């Protein structure tokens, strides 16, 4: 008897702990959806399709880590799509010029960093809202790409350049996924275990309090925009390698995919909360969604409607969770007050 | 005697909040063409009473009755009270800063033309008329943000006048005004009185009240205490005694300590006003602080107490002034500079900039020492929780654990977490802005104990508090601010509630 109830308690405890994790909603949603789709369409869980999902989600996943940092600081970066195109075009041109591949890769990242620096400097230095700055940069960077390419794709690219994307780890894992996941792991550690990561959370939770506590809020803010843009540049390099050409129109709408993925993964739009694991799962969910809807022969138009609805639902869930937490905290509050009163009466 | 002249009568008004009674059977009357002052310490029940009169606290949740011109009324919302002719001017200016003068005065009552669009000409006429009653001419199209605080204050009054009230309630209207602006406002109030208005005037400033008000009603701890008439002459001593009333209880622990050499010296500090452009809230302030000393920084609301310590901490800019710590002039231009020099600040508004609500207790505590608990690149979790646990236990914070979200704690425990954040640093000087605001009595006493122990350990402390009795009990010396300068400095022996109140209201 006793043992049984103990086991029950133990499992209840695990469930409780799981539900309190920030990623619980996205993990549940992902699991339910995968089970549903695979029961409807068996091709979905074929190894070929899984490979496809990973391969195409890799591009979004590279930027999603950076975007999550930005969102946690209660910021926003709308320029990542244009930066992706710029990174791809610049690295493609460097490769075309016959320079070594690592240098081409680096140049794509560097041009992203440069854009991030500009974003960061304007946001921090001139105190202009990130929404405006990065929206402007979305146009400006896209324009810059057109000016550089004059509308002509950077094509053909050297074989050695495109090979970068075609290497497979253990024969099945595409390079871009390896890169994306390594970045995710690195930033998971940075966000959770370094003073910088802590500052990111503090900044989004309460900027004024963070400043009063001696946190360098300006530097932190600047850094997250540089990181995001650099990663977008890197994604651009891989995109160019994948397409075999540096396209001026690459990455249109990319910023929305990345932001959606992060938010669906539990990053709060109000700042202060979010995890890399959640965001990566959110990004995967986005890709699984489009992939599965295509498999089920649902038209592209409907797909957008579904993605939009899910985004709103995700934010609603986030809101609901916050309210619940607040209610909980108010209840907790009165309880501690009661306990204190008791104490003061007793003493 | 003048019952027929009574405009407003409050009978046996009681207001209970969960567990506490803020107002207990208070009765009062307001007569026609009278300016009545309501005075009392913080928590005396003044603002509760005003919130009942303005309908902010629904009448159905109070006990007692209100009569307007002899008829009983029930205010369920501020709209009810407004419609019955009561206009309330709050202490905080609630203007739409980016709208024009006309728009602000007519806000909520913009006249419409036949088509249903705003009739701007008519609106301007209404606004100009309202300003004329205040003997004021302004550029009607000007954006309110660009006007001085006193002008903004007057626009609030003009807005109230548009509704043609018979009773005007002003809650500390002069806290942001200079003395000449205050004189002008008082003239205007007298002018309105002649036009037939009755006024309730809430202020801590004795000199103003003496000059302006026909009668003073004093509240204390939710009770009606006494009233004084102008024609009988006001007696400061009796009025202040009535306001203070209660004896200091034993909640202030005393401790033996030695006060050492000078640690901090402030010279010629000048701080610009944070909301009014081109004005200085602190004009020329100098004082010093010794090791282990607790210094009370006194003054009325708006006297620049918070601005002074925020400028020392580098969280707001100063335009002049030297900060000398342990004999060396230091350069403090940011909060980080202050921390490097061993200065800490507990801010006035915990929720606004004291803690980070999305973070746990331990994460809030270690915000100030992130770089010090770093091992290579990573935060040493073990060291972090050790450091946090030490103060969690030492200050006996009541919470399930270190991982509990700070927003779920009670005010007193939140304050202890914020204190720990500073205790973890190499602290020389700790500045506390209203450390016991919104905290229950038990936790208050604990916080005093913490402050005293810190002083004993050699930390120098500056405390700001609106509760003078609290300051008197814990401080070794007092600096009273007013009108942008130091009004007076008092030793523990010379200080009394009366002396401090006198100095801060400059009578």
User: What pair of chains forms the biggest interface?
Assistant: A-B, 36 and 41 residues
Fraction in beta strands of chain A = under 5%
Structural class of chain B comes to: alpha/beta
**Quaternary structure state of the chains depicted:** heterodimer
Assign an overall shape of chain B: globular
Q: Taking Cα atoms only, what radius of gyration of chain B do you get, to the nearest Å?
A: 25 Å
Order of helices and strands of chain A: HHHHHHHEEHHHHHHH
The largest sheet of chain A is: 2 strands, antiparallel
Count of distinct strands of chain A? 2
Task: Give the strand line-up of the largest sheet of chain B.
Answer: 6-7-8-3-9-10
Question: Distance between the terminal alpha carbons of chain A, to the nearest Å?
Answer: 42 Å
What number is the mean pLDDT of chain B? 87
Main β sheet profile of chain B: 6 strands, mixed
Order of strands in the sheet with most strands of chain A: 1-2
Would you kindly provide a written description of the structure presented here, covering whatever features stand out?
The complex is a heterodimer of chains A (about 350) and B (about 500). Chain A is mainly alpha-helical and about 350 residues long. Chain A has a domain at about 45-250 and about 270-275. Chain A is about 80% helix and about 0% strand. Chain A has 14 helices and two strands. Chain A has helices at about 1-20, 25-40, 45-70, 80-95, 100-125, 130-150, 160-165, 175-195, 195-205, 205-210, 215-245, 255-265, 275-295, 300-345; strands at about 170, 175. In chain A, strand 1 and strand 2 (about 175) form a beta hairpin. The longest helix of chain A has about 45 residues, at about 300-345. The radius of gyration of chain A is 23 Å and the shape is globular. The model of chain A is unreliable at about 330-345 (pLDDT under 50). Chain B has about 500 residues and is of the alpha/beta class. Chain B folds into two domains: about 5-245, 3-Layer(aba) Sandwich (Rossmann fold); about 260-340 and about 430-440 and about 460-505, Rossmann fold (3-Layer(aba) Sandwich), CATH 3.40.50. Helix content of chain B is about 30%, strand content about 25%. In chain B, the strands form five sheets. In chain B, strands 6-7-8-3-9-10 form a six-stranded mixed beta sheet, with helices on both faces. In chain B, strands 16-19-20-13-21-22 form a six-stranded mixed beta sheet, with helices on both faces. In chain B, helix 6 (about 180-195) links the parallel strand 7 and strand 8 (about 200). The mean pLDDT of chain B is about 85. At the A-B interface, helix 9, helix 10 and helix 14 of A face helix 10, helix 11, strand 18, helix 14 and helix 15 of B.
